[in-house]
Amino acid sequence: MTTPFTLTFDCASPAALSAFWCTALGYVPASPPAGFASWEQWLRHFAVPEQEWDDGAAIEDPTGAGPRISFLKVPEPKTAKNRVHLDVQAGGGRATPWEERWPRVRAAADRLVAAGATELGVADLDGRPDHVLLADPEGNELCVV
User: Fold this and answer.
1) Is 21 helix (H, G, I), strand (E, B) or coil?
2) If you average pLDDT over every residue of the chain, what do you get?
3) Residue 87 to residue 104: CA distance in whole angstroms
4) Would you say 139 and 78 are in contact if contact means Cβ atoms under 8 Å apart?
5) What are the start-end ranges of the H helices in the chain?
6) Distance between CA 44 and CA 9 in Å, rounded?
7) Which domains does the chain have, with CATH numbers?
């Protein structure tokens, strides 16, 4: 039996970072909890002060296959390398011929840079480019493979 989980990012701007990751993963903003027509209705129901409304955000896989991802506002900035990172699997896997895979990887990395990521480098395998290392808008590392 598996245990459901949510992957959570600590961040400075939950709304902005969740929008970036929607672009990166093809996710959508999370639906409000059952019984509520909107997040605003849920927040008002639980008397969350309006100044705290951007203290969190969540996104979800529209197909339901991937995990939910949440973003929580924290006061301190990121200070060290991630111990866990996401691999955005844009290339189709190493079974896909390099001539097909690498242009997909490069195009996805370029799209994410346009969305606010920073390119940190390109990793080589057997003398040719294999994957792109990026940082999201708040500095969290990720790879496009």
Assistant:
1) helix
2) 95
3) 14
4) yes
5) 14-25, 39-45, 98-114
6) 24
7) 6-73 (3.30.720.120), 86-144 (no CATH)
Distance CA 118, CA 109 (A): 9
Name 137's Cβ contacts closer than 8 Å, sequence gap at least 6: 16, 17, 20, 116, 117
Report the chain's C-alpha Rg in angstroms: 17
Residue 114 Cα distances to 48, 66, 118, 143, angstroms: 34, 24, 9, 15
Q: Is 82 helix (H, G, I), strand (E, B) or coil?
A: coil
Q: What is the pLDDT of residues 94-144, one digit of tens each?
A: 999 999 999 999 999 999 999 999 999 999 998 999 999 999 999 999 999
Q: Is 10 exposed, middle or buried (0-12, 13-18, 19+ CB in 10 A)?
A: middle
Interatomic CA distance for residues 101 and 94, integer angstroms? 8
Measured distance CA(10)–CA(32) in Å, rounded: 21
What is the C-alpha end-to-end distance of the chain, expressed in Å?
Answer: 29
What residues have CB less than 8 Å from 106, skipping those under 6 apart?
129, 132
